[in-house]
TrEMBL record:
Its EC number is 1.5.1.2. It catalyses: L-proline + NADP(+) = (S)-1-pyrroline-5-carboxylate + NADPH + 2 H(+); L-proline + NAD(+) = (S)-1-pyrroline-5-carboxylate + NADH + 2 H(+). The keyword Acyltransferase does not apply. The lineage of its organism: Bacteria, Bacillati, Bacillota, Bacilli, Bacillales. Keywords: Amino-acid biosynthesis, Cytoplasm, NADP, Oxidoreductase, Proline biosynthesis. GO terms for molecular function: pyrroline-5-carboxylate reductase activity. The gene is proC. Residues 5-99 form the Pyrroline-5-carboxylate reductase catalytic N-terminal domain. Residues 162-263 form the Pyrroline-5-carboxylate reductase dimerisation domain. It is found in: Cytoplasm. Its main location: cytoplasm. Pfam families: F420_oxidored, P5CR_dimer. Pathway: Amino-acid biosynthesis; L-proline biosynthesis; L-proline from L-glutamate 5-semialdehyde: step 1/1. This is Pyrroline-5-carboxylate reductase.
Amino acid sequence: MRNSILFIGAGRMAEAIISGLYQKSDEQISHIYVSNRSNPERLTELAKKYKANAIHEIEKFIKRVDVIVLAMPPGEHKDILKRISPYITNQFIVTVAAGIGPAYLEDNLPTNTPVGWIMPNTAATIGHSISLYTYGKFVKDKHKKQMEMLVNSIGASQYCTEQQIHDLTAVTGSAPAFVYLFVETLIEFTEKMGVSSEVAEKLVNEMVIGSAEMLKGNLSARELREQVTTPGGATAEGIKVLQNGQFTQLVQQAVIATNKKAKGEE
């Protein structure tokens, strides 16, 4: 089965999925249409780069497609859903926005519309996202296959319930920013030791990349940490400072705060 897909939104996540589809699922694609009202230049760029079809009046193309991917910020969903609803027949509607689950989509689309939710992260741009995904109440086997095509285009994936995605958004979607902040901090401190910014970035970045590669092995993160941490040694002293500074609790609080914001809670 070859699918026609309409992307509403032409940002980085839309590009990541489009690029991945052409690389990994080209034989399953009939046409890709892309719409982006706010940035025509970006739309033109994306269309040329991937030989996609740039469109401006999405209403004229909805009945031509099998899947519609909503790749715009959460706050824009209500207006877009209202705009496309009169033209929906049995298209599979998928969002990649934080906080917009199947229940919200079903409430704002015609009855029995098949919907899905993907929560990717920025590593999607290099094909290494870990994407959480779920479905609404009206999906069929063909829609599940279409979902697999989408999530497999940008990396690994994990099926979850809607509530689990709400709870795990910070862990898989936002936590990369926590990691980058940790890296930034190490780089800045390394520079204070008289090392150039170029050397500092190389040292810290390669350390993190190597550490991440170790996680692909058979040992858990705890086991790897214990391997590095000789009791009473220098690393143990550094770990003690982090623990005394409530490092673990701060990470947990950051996850809770992120999830609350994503759900629109105060």
